[in-house]
Specification:
The chain is built from 23 helices and 13 strands. It is of the alpha+beta class. The chain is globular, with a radius of gyration of 24 Å.
C-alpha cells in the first residue's frame, strides 16, 4: 500500500488544475441554530485529550483533494490544520490522495484488489449496489451501532434535528452518512444565493440602457453591446459555471440538466418541452455571437474570469466568491452591478437556484473499511469534527495564525485574507469540514455588491424545484440507473451542445427525446420517484 501511496502522491502533484476553493458553495444548512464555539484551541486541547486513544494509532485515509491544494503541500497531513487536529486527538493520519481526474478509476482498482485503507472518503455511494451492497460484500462496516456510544457530538446533532439523520441513513436503515458534512446553521432554502448574473453598468450607461431583467431585455442589451462595443470578444461570458447559477434555464422552470422536482414528482429536465425552449434561447444568442464562441470547452476560472478582468466580455453568471477574488484586479473604470436572474416576465418567481442552506453533503462520508482495526477510535476521531471545537478548527483554522477572536466571534487574520486561496487550503480545507459555520461563509463576502447579490437572487427565487437531498436506491435500481444513464448522459451532453451551437437543428428535438426514451429513461424516472416516496416515509 505504501508504494502505491507514494506513486499516487507523485501523480497528484503533477496534475495541477485551477479549481473552485469555496466553502460557501459546497452544500446546504439546518433549522436549528448551532452553538457558537466559546473556547480557544489552547483550552480545547485538554478537553480533547480525554477522548484521545490511550496509545497513539495511525489511520490511513483515502481522500481525494483538489489538485490545486497539492501546490502547497504533497499531502494533507502536512497542512497546519491537519497537524493541529492530530495533536488534539492523538490520532496520526496518513492520507492517500488519488490523482485528480482519476479518482474513480483508482477507487475501482483499490476495491477490486481489496487493498483497502482504514477509511475511504466518498465513492462507495457509486459502488455497484451502493454503500449497502458494499456492507454486504464485506468491504465497509455500518457504523450505526457505534454512533450512540462513540459519537456524542453527532448524536447531539441528530437529536436536535432528526431530519439530518434521515438524510444520513439509507432506506434499509444503515447509517451510510457518517462523516458527511452537515450544514445546520440556517434552514434549507434560506442560505446564501451565491451565484447569478453580473453586468458592466458603465457600458449600460454609455448605451443608455437599464439593468436587464427579462430574457428579452437581456437579448436586447447583449445585441446592443455587440454593436456598440467592438472590442468585446463577446457580450456574455459563459461556461459550465452557468450550470451552477441556472442562468437562463430557471426562467423556464427547468434546470440546465438532470433531475428536478416537478410538483410532487421527480422528472428528467433534458426531455421536457420547456427544455427545448431553453435550448432555443441559447441557440439564438449563440448564433448571433452574443455568447463566447468556445463556451462548451472554456472553464470558468481559467477562461471566463480572465475575460471579465480584461473587459473582453461585459456580463457573466458569476460566483460571488470569485468576484471578490478578482475585484481588486479590475480596472477602475469597470463598474459591475448584480442583475436579476433573467425571467420571462417582470416579477416572475423562480423556483431553481443555488443555495448554501440546510442539508448534508454525502460526498464527504467517511466509510470505515473492514480492514480498519480501530473502528471505535475512528468513530471517536471523526466525531470530534462534529463538535463545536472541531467546527471552529476546520472552519477557521488555528487561533493567532488564521483567525483571531473579536468580541467573542472568530475573524480571519490579515494574513489569511491576503492570500485566501492558499491559506484556505492550509487552514480550512473543505475536505476536513463536517460542520459548516455560516459565519465563516458570510465572512468571505464582505463587499457590498456581494451582499446585494445574495439579497436580490434570494428574493426572486426559491429552491422548491431543486432535487431533494437524501435519495437512495436499491441495488437493483442502482444497476438499472447506471446502465441506462451512462448512455443517456453521454447522448444528452453531446446533443444539447449541438442544439445550442446550431450543429443540429432543434427540429430534431422530438427524435432526440424518442431516443432517450428508447434508452429507458422512464425506468430511471420510476426509480427516482420510488426513492423519493421512500425518503418521505423515513
Amino acid at each position: 500500500m505504501q508504494n502505491r501511496t507514494n506513486r499516487l502522491r507523485m501523480l497528484s502533484s503533477a496534475l495541477l488544475v485551477v479549481t473552485l476553493a469555496v466553502a460557501g458553495c459546497s452544500s446546504s444548512n439546518s433549522s436549528g441554530s448551532s452553538t457558537a464555539p466559546s473556547s480557544s484551541p489552547a483550552s480545547t486541547t485538554a478537553a480533547s485529550a480525554s477522548s484521545a486513544p490511550k496509545e497513539p494509532i495511525t489511520l490511513t485515509v483515502w481522500m481525494p483533494v483538489e489538485s490545486q491544494q497539492l501546490t502547497y503541500y504533497n499531502n494533507l497531513a502536512e497542512a497546519p490544520v491537519a497537524k493541529e487536529l492530530m495533536k488534539r486527538t492523538g490520532v496520526n493520519l496518513k492520507f492517500i490522495h488519488p490523482p485528480s481526474g482519476n479518482e474513480k478509476e483508482q477507487f475501482n482498482v483499490m476495491v477490486a484488489a481489496r487493498d483497502l485503507p482504514d477509511v475511504v472518503m466518498g465513492y462507495f455511494d457509486g459502488y455497484k449496489g451502493g454503500a449497502s451492497q458494499a456492507v454486504k460484500d464485506g468491504l465497509i462496516i455500518d457504523p450505526k451501532d457505534y454512533i450512540k456510544d462513540y459519537a456524542p457530538n453527532l448524536t447531539k446533532i441528530l437529536n436536535a434535528d432528526p431530519d439530518i439523520g434521515k438524510l444520513m441513513k439509507n432506506d434499509e436503515g444503515q447509517f451510510i452518512g457518517f462523516g458527511a458534512r452537515v450544514n445546520n446553521d440556517v434552514k434549507r432554502g434560506q442560505g446564501m444565493a451565491y451565484a447569478g448574473p453580473m453586468i458592466r453598468k458603465d457600458l449600460l450607461d454609455k448605451a443608455g440602457l437599464a439593468v436587464p431583467e427579462t430574457i428579452d431585455e437581456w437579448y436586447n442589451v447583449l445585441k446592443t453591446f455587440k454593436a456598440k462595443f467592438p472590442d468585446l470578444q463577446s457580450p456574455l461570458g459563459w461556461s459550465d459555471m452557468s450550470e451552477t447559477s441556472y442562468f437562463i434555464a430557471s426562467a423556464y422552470d427547468i434546470p440546465n440538466k438532470g433531475w428536478y422536482l416537478n410538483g410532487d414528482k421527480i422528472a428528467f429536465s433534458n426531455i421536457q418541452p420547456n427544455y427545448k425552449t431553453y435550448l432555443e434561447t441559447v441557440n439564438k444568442w449563440y448564433k448571433e455571437g452574443l455568447i463566447q464562441k468556445d463556451f462548451a470547452t472554456d472553464g470558468y476560472t481559467d477562461k471566463v474570469l480572465p475575460l471579465v478582468k480584461t473587459g473582453k466580455v461585459a456580463a457573466a453568471p458569476m460566483h460571488l466568491y470569485w468576484y471578490g477574488v478578482i475585484q481588486p484586479e479590475l480596472p477602475k473604470d469597470f463598474e459591475f452591478v448584480v442583475a436579476p436572474q433573467p425571467t420571462l416576465t417582470k416579477g416572475q418567481k423562480l423556483h431553481i437556484r443555488v443555495d448554501s442552506g440546510w442539508g448534508v453533503l454525502m460526498a464527504n462520508t467517511k466509510y470505515i473499511t473492514t480492514k480498519n482495526k480501530y473502528p471505535k477510535e475512528t468513530i471517536k476521531f471523526f466525531d470530534y469534527l462534529y463538535s463545536d471545537e472541531g467546527k471552529l478548527l476546520t472552519n477557521w483554522g488555528i487561533e493567532g495564525e488564521s483567525y483571531k477572536m473579536v468580541n467573542g466571534s472568530p475573524e480571519f487574520t490579515e494574513a489569511y485574507t491576503k492570500e485566501i486561496a492558499k491559506m484556505g487550503y492550509l487552514y480550512t480545507p473543505n475536505v476536513l469540514k463536517e460542520r459548516i459555520d455560516d459565519r465563516m461563509n458570510r465572512m468571505q463576502y464582505k463587499l457590498p455588491i456581494q451582499q446585494q447579490g445574495f439579497d436580490l437572487w434570494a428574493k426572486q427565487s426559491d429552491t422548491s424545484m431543486v432535487l431533494p437531498p437524501g435519495l437512495t436506491f436499491t441495488s437493483e435500481e442502482q444497476a438499472v440507473n447506471t446502465k441506462i444513464m451512462t448512455d443517456v448522459d453521454t447522448y444528452t451532453k453531446e446533443m444539447n451542445l449541438k442544439f445550442m451551437m446550431g450543429v443540429e437543428s432543434l427540429d430534431k428535438f422530438d427524435s432526440y427525446v424518442k431516443k432517450i426514451q428508447d434508452f429507458g429513461i422512464d425506468k430511471v424516472t420510476a426509480n427516482y420517484n420510488a426513492a423519493y416516496e421512500r425518503l418521505k416515509k423515513r
